[in-house]
Design the sequence.
């Protein structure tokens, strides 16, 4: 449906975004929302497997795990935490702008959120590079400053890369979704009546932030008490 | 005959099958009924691929010295397990009958997310391409359980390709479950309350919960397995400070609930067939419905019974053993209630009902031998023997495959608008039943006598029972090929089916033509009677919309 047709349909009181198999827009929105929450439950279990592994090994090797957190870049980790929390805030503002039908504000907040996501990923890249330089990548090239913890620390760094890597992958997907939303918003696809994708991506973005809120203390702070 | 009969009515009407014949209309369809058929053909293909590996195994076990070397035999049972579990049993009933029937049973025009439904099929196919790649490039020899550190360090086969295949196909399972949960919550027709929901839908709801919560755990476990295989950081390697039992915990956290993914939908099918062919409402509807949920919940808490001999704490084992016994309670509730449903009903012996009888008997044997295995002392004796194989196949083949075939026959007239040849179908049921028992019953004895699983060669005293088992497997193979032949024939040439040939209750039979039109119903159905109302109870006349 072209843009003009959609505007026209809306003016006549039709719901252009209502799919044929739903009775009304409320049912459609309820379904999308429930679907998104169920998907996020799946994501919780997806990360949960690794958090379980982390918990087991941290209880088995508490000293070794504590020692590794001294080799994490606390400054970058803290900045990234702040960046993500702030990006959640701008995401909420984007959803609010969509509710009010303010297109310019919507696009603006989405762009800021996107920018913050990219900042996070860039800083994460810097950190990964540091790990490479320090030989903290698990595998044949792995070195560790405290030899008595060599194997245990290698397991921690393995989990570090698995957990933050999967989190970063989710950020990349989130960035892609934000780009899509910005493009859709620019083409006037959203209105105060229909902005479901923005709400759904918002939920996703908050979820990815929350995962980081757990990762940050577990990986960066445990040895610094 | 002098007069020409008019063309049958169903042939003239537009339905989901004849509205468009182009290949695009199939590959880009978002109609849940067409996607169900796409799944039906794909999983049937994988069933026969997986079956071919089983044929290889049974041929090998004809003689104590065997046909194949150890390595080949390891690959045969691994590929048999991977394909049958992840590419047949997990999607079998949910993705085909569930996909086709859930929207129809609750009076909806489609699933909540039709495009995600199509996506799930494509993901399944991509996963299938990966698993076939693993087969073609020489197979995998770790067993379908991928135990570390063998799978991470020592195996020289295509473990990562196979793990990726399972990882990918897992997402198709997650998306199917997600779609069902939302559909069942949000898309029910007016008057279709939770206490009127067909038990097939209830059992799929329970299945979906497991799919959504369990599958991501196996996905991440396989990611860790693949990464460990590449980096060799020692995550599951005791020599490097890792814990191989952690892998087993993570693996079974999904893979035990997964057996409930594989059996609950079968129970749903039986709960539809039994009242229809007993002409009686289901005995204890609420208990049967809630027992599905109980199985899903308890099923998440029993995985440790796979680790009784893996060095797990004895106290943990006791708790897991106890909860494993508790799962038997809701399963038994179902079996007793189906039996009570038949009591004083007017039972007829059509093919779907024969499969239901088969299911109830064989599932009971499979379930009760599961209690043997939940008992720690006995489990130590029969761990990794053919007893476990026999138990598992009594539930999965005797249970799930029987229910699947029963369901396919029961809803065949709805899906195709044609009737299948009843005589051939009954004959095939008998062949399947005889072949199945001859294949797997000797394996209980073999296991009890101590024949270990996963060995290419065995001691000579086990030969008689193994030959019986192989003979049974060849009969079973005939039993599985027969329906392919006569159902394909009937799809083109069978007599035209009336709308409701079984006089069954349920929206899919009473309110929709056979085959249904694209959006399932000609009018929005409204439900105003209790479920399985075979006795014709008074229907309420109040406006259900209020």
Sequence:
């Amino acid at each position: 449906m072209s843009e003009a047709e959609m505007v026209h349909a809306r003016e006549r009181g039709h719901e252009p975004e209502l799919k044929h198999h739903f009775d009304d827009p409320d049912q459609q929105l309820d379904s999308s929302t429930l679907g998104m929450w169920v998907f996020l439950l799946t994501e919780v279990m997806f990360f949960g497997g690794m958090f379980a592994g982390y918990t087991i090994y941290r209880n088995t090797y508490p000293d070794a795990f504590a020692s590794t957190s001294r080799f994490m870049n606390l400054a970058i980790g803290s900045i990234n935490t702040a960046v993500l929390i702030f990006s959640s805030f701008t995401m909420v503002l984007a959803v609010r702008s969509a509710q009010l039908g303010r297109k310019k504000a919507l696009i603006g907040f989405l762009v800021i959120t996107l920018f913050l996501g990219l900042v996070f990923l860039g800083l994460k890249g810097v950190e990964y590079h540091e790990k490479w330089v320090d030989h903290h990548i698990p595998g044949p090239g792995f070195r560790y400053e405290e030899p008595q913890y060599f194997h245990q620390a290698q397991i921690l760094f393995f989990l570090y890369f698995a957990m933050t890597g999967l989190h970063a992958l989710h950020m990349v997907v989130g960035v892609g979704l934000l780009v899509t939303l910005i493009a859709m918003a620019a083409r006037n696809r959203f209105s105060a009546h229909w902005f479901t994708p923005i709400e759904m991506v918002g939920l996703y973005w908050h979820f990815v932030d929350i995962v980081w809120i757990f990762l940050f203390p577990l990986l960066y702070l445990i040895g610094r008490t | 005959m002098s007069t020409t009969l008019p063309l049958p009515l169903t042939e003239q009407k537009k339905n989901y099958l004849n509205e468009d014949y182009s290949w695009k209309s199939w590959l880009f369809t978002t109609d849940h009924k067409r996607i169900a058929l796409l799944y039906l053909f794909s999983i049937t293909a994988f069933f026969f691929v997986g079956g071919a590996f089983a044929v290889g195994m049974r041929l090998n076990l004809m003689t104590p010295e065997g046909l194949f070397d150890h390595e080949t035999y390891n690959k045969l049972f691994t590929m048999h397990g991977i394909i049958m579990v992840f590419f047949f049993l997990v999607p079998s009933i949910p993705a085909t009958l569930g996909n086709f029937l859930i929207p129809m049973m609750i009076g909806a025009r489609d699933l909540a997310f039709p495009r995600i439904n199509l996506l799930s099929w494509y993901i399944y196919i991509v996963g299938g391409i990966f698993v076939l790649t693993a087969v073609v490039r020489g197979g995998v020899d770790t067993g379908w359980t991928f135990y570390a550190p063998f799978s991470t360090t020592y195996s020289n086969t295509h473990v990562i390709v196979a793990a990726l295949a399972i990882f990918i196909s897992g997402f198709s399972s997650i998306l199917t479950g997600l779609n069902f949960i939302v559909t069942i919550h949000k898309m029910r027709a007016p008057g279709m309350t939770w206490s009127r929901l067909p038990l097939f839908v209830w059992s799929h709801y329970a299945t979906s919960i497991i799919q959504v919560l369990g599958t991501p755990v196996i996905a991440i476990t396989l990611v860790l397995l693949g990464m460990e295989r590449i980096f060799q950081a020692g995550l599951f390697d005791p020599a490097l400070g890792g814990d191989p039992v952690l892998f087993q915990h993570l693996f079974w956290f999904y893979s035990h609930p997964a057996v409930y993914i594989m059996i609950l939908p079968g129970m749903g099918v039986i709960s539809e067939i039994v009242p229809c062919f007993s002409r009686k409402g289901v005995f204890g509807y609420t208990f049967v419905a809630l027992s599905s949920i109980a199985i899903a919940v308890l099923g998440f808490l029993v995985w440790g019974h796979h680790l009784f001999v893996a060095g797990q704490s004895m106290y943990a084992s006791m708790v897991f053993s106890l909860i494993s016994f508790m799962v038997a309670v809701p399963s038994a509730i179902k079996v007793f209630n189906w039996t009570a449903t038949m009591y004083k009903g007017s039972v007829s012996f059509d093919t779907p009902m024969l499969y239901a009888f088969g299911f109830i008997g064989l599932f009971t044997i499979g379930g009760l031998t599961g209690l043997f295995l939940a008992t720690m002392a006995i489990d130590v004796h029969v761990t990794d023997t053919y007893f476990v194989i026999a138990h598992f196949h009594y539930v999965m083949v005797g249970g799930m495959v029987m229910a699947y075939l029963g369901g396919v026959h029961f809803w065949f007239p709805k899906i195709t608008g044609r009737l299948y040849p009843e005589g051939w179908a009954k004959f095939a049921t008998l062949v399947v039943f005889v072949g199945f028992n001859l294949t797997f019953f000797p394996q209980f004895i073999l296991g009890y006598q101590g024949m270990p699983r996963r060995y290419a060669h065995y001691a000579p005293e086990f030969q008689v029972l193994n030959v019986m088992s192989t003979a049974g497997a060849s009969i079973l193979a005939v039993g599985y090929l027969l329906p392919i032949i006569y159902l394909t024939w009937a799809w083109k040439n069978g007599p035209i089916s009336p709308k409701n040939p079984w006089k069954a209750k349920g929206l899919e039979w009473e309110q929709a033509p056979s085959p249904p039109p694209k959006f399932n119903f000609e009018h929005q159905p409204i439900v105003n009677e209790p479920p399985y109302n075979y006795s014709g109870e008074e229907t309420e006349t109040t406006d259900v919309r209020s």
